[in-house]
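Repro:
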Amino acid sequence: MCGIFGIVTNRAVEASALEKAGKILSHRGPDDSGIWISKNSHAGLGHQRLSIIDLSGNAHQPMSNEACPECRRRNGSAWITYNGEVYNYREIREALDGKGHDFKSLSDTEVILHAYEEWGEGCLDRLSGMFAFAIWDGKKQKLFLARDRIGKKPLFYYRDSKTFAFASEIQALLALNIPKSINLSAVHQYLTYQYFPAPKSIFKNVFKLPPAHYLILENGVLKIQRYWDINFSKKISVISEKELAEEVYEKLKESVSQRLISDVPLGAFLSGGIDSSIVVALMSQIMKEPVKTFSIGFEEEAYNELPYARQIAKLFKTKHKEFIVRFDALNILPKLVRHYGEPFADSSALPTYYLSKMTSEFVTVALSGDGGDENFAGYDRYFALKIIRGFKGVPEIFRRSILNLVKTFPEHDGKGYVKRFKRFLEGSLAPDGHEYLQWVIGFSSGDAGNLYTPFMQDELKNEDPYDYLTGLFRNSTAFNPAEKSMDADIHSYLPFDLLVKVDIASMANSLEIRCPFLDHRFMEFIATIPLEYKLKGRIKKYILKKAFNGLIPEAIFKRRKAGFGVPLYRWLRHELKDYISEILLSRQSVERSYFKPDAVKILLSEHISGRIDHSTKLWTLLMLELWHREFIDNN
């Protein structure tokens, strides 16, 4: 896993600027580094390497298609800087060997470069894995950027009339001296979703290449093209539930097996939930040595999953390590804000960072269970959307009366029942196609309108942040609301929240994370399974549980989903109460003219009193303000 960056300009590329960008990305690749500048000085590539496959100097990047035999310097017509892992690179290399390509390393990097030589942009159809890369084609004076299908690896870019620049993280782009102008439309989306959906970023002139897309810059013309998408419209006919479960088992085992390719030590995240337990079970079957597993817990019992993780570790005889998170948010927050590069409001970034830090002390690669919920209908919202259209048959006056009654109850009941029921009722009152929004938004349009200053209201009067998600829902290839929401999650929440969280937290600690549930071929197959085999009655992940029945203890299957959260509700009422009030009501914050101070005071008061759980909203505002202090006020 690595950090990549580069620039194409009508001026001479400055090596010092590339070197500065490389230093900023050194946490993504501490083992090796390099820059390359074209002979005409108008193109430059850079790389920071975390060595995983082929630890020799032959895999040094940026890498060219032809090698100088006596040294690491390469002088070819095409150059690549690459971040990721292509798990089927050996099969692709065998095909390229048959076509006369000459290889000087054992790396997947060189395979991608020769695959581009042979098949052009069509090489992407053959790659299976996670990746973001850039190839400079010297013969055509063309830049080719690509990102993996699911969005595991990040890729930002900037463009003006003179310069095109790209990098794995937004901080490295800033090192290339690009201008900074806040994108208020993107801020509006951030408040709604707690993340920035591609292609937007916090800056007007910086964009994210969306997952499953490639970009070509040639003769000053920019072209962006999708090369893959998942299809929920085609369903298999299930003749035998037993045979379907066996097929799910075998395909997931194959995905796990492919992700064990490594020349460095590897292990697994283990939460004690269904998905990570299954990954560890399969690793134990495949690996000759005991699996190294890593878990994190909290002093607060409601957020502590360590007993379940220990149960799985003991069952599969893993080498298990644990870490207890104690309140230290004030010390870790500045570091997280710097690493994420733009405001990011998923508070589970904190435990993910701690888990990654601990894990990186023992291994360089870890497998995780990410993607199991999106594939197999593991979230509560999928069941809610399965039944919500039927509930809409209840007269609206009764639904509103129930909602008004529920609003009188404290939202934080310890288990989230009141909050989830409130969301369900609000969804039942939403227009068709908008029900899903109630489960995933932070600030509703009404909330934001009450919060914004007149300046912000005027700036955003023609913006509807819901358009992004309702568009995904409307254009889904699925036929029912539950599956449409799964499809929308795969295109939004998964790549722009969960995978961003894991990539940044892990790479900040020079750790590579691999996700067997996110193999694109596995996901294509799971999308063809009818919903009733994923969500059977109220049983979530039904066919996955059937597939691993007998291997995973039934108690793990039956336990209530805990998620990977932190005790944010309590922190913001106690340990962080004074801190967040001081930050959000400070002169610095007020003078940004984003939010009405009185509206912010109401949010703080209602939360601190315990009347309404505003933890998500307050955390979203806090991360936005801390980001401004780090990236705008300090520069």
